[in-house]
Design goal:
about 300 residues, alpha/beta, D-Maltodextrin-Binding Protein, domain 2, Alpha-Beta Plaits, 3 domains, 5-stranded mixed β-sheet, 9 helices, about 30% strand
Length: about 300
């Protein structure tokens, strides 16, 4: 474990599908990361934080043992780690909205699949034996779980196993190998995890400040700032239409009695259909703008 220098440590994937997204999230939170992509660590210039670049399946261990106070990892990796733990030693602080995929059981296209009972007595290849065994147990199915480190979709072709349980994003890899997904074991995305080990008061304050920054970044991803004009009689209906908005700010328009400017932060997606509904309710001069920063 690192000597306590008073700096926080964040474990992130060194390479892979979450690596760049994780860096982008931290940069959006205002962290100036020194160039350390090909190193094991990188220092943050403007915040007492060091990044640790590690394998994704090592991140839960780093956080659980408080080697790193935070980590960014796929829920699939986290749940597989937790499948062998009596009790979690970390908390999921926030889902991050990127790296979405699903762990699915797949069978040959020609197989007549009739539910989980069709897996009984079969061999299933996977890189996630803990999650697959839990799924099978939940459905009362006994099957042989064959652990593979990669290229799981090739298992049927190589005669290793008849079925597979693998991560799926588009499904193209399964389709290319004559397989179709039939059961979802886990829906996954990147998550921010935080150690349960107690921190010193100074570190706890730093950790809370960092989390608030990340929380603010996540809040702006779908949020939009809406401004519009409306007559007084339309304000109630317009407030009901605004997606995910708290009480909007209503300001009288100079020189136009009975008319108001309405400003609102909408924490849900704003679609063209929403604008059409606002227009039909009496809104005019509708302006939708992105939000760069927001502190909750």
């Amino acid at each position: 474990m690192f000597a306590d220098t008073g700096r926080l440590h964040i474990a992130v994937q060194k390479s892979g599908r979450l690596a760049q997204y994780s860096r982008d999230l931290l940069r959006d939170a205002g962290l100036r990361i020194q160039n350390g992509k090909n190193e094991l660590t990188a220092r943050v210039d403007n915040f007492p934080i060091d990044l640790m670049f590690v394998r994704d399946d090592d991140i839960p261990t780093f956080v659980a043992d408080a080697v790193c106070e935070f980590g960014i990892v796929g829920r699939n990796v986290l749940e597989e780690f937790g499948a062998g733990e009596a009790e979690p030693r970390f908390d999921v602080a926030a889902p991050l909205g990127f790296g979405r995929c699903a762990l699915k059981v797949a069978v040959p296209e020609s197989f007549d699949y009739r539910g989980p009972e069709s897996l009984a007595g079969e061999r299933i290849a996977t890189s996630y034996p803990g999650l697959l065994r839990r799924f099978l147990a939940d459905h009362g199915v006994e099957a042989s779980v064959v652990k593979m480190s990669g290229a799981v979709e090739l298992a049927p072709r190589l005669g290793i196993a008849r079925f597979v349980c693998d991560l799926v994003s588009t499904g193209a890899t399964l389709e290319a190998n004559g397989l179709v997904p039939v059961e979802t074991v886990l829906e996954s995305e990147a998550v921010l995890v935080r150690t349960r080990r107690p921190l010193s008061p100074a570190k706890a304050e730093l950790a809370d400040n960092l989390f608030r920054r990340i929380e603010g970044v996540l809040a702006t991803q779908e949020s939009k700032y809406i401004m519009l004009n409306a007559p007084e009689e339309a304000l109630g209906e317009i407030a009901d239409i605004l997606p995910g908005a708290e009480a909007p700010t209503v300001i009288p328009l100079a020189g136009r009695p009975g008319h108001y400017a309405v400003h609102a932060v909408c924490q849900e997606s704003v679609f063209w259909e929403t604008l059409q509904k606002l227009k039909a309710a009496g809104a005019s001069a509708i302006l939708v703008m992105p939000i760069e920063k927001m502190m909750l």
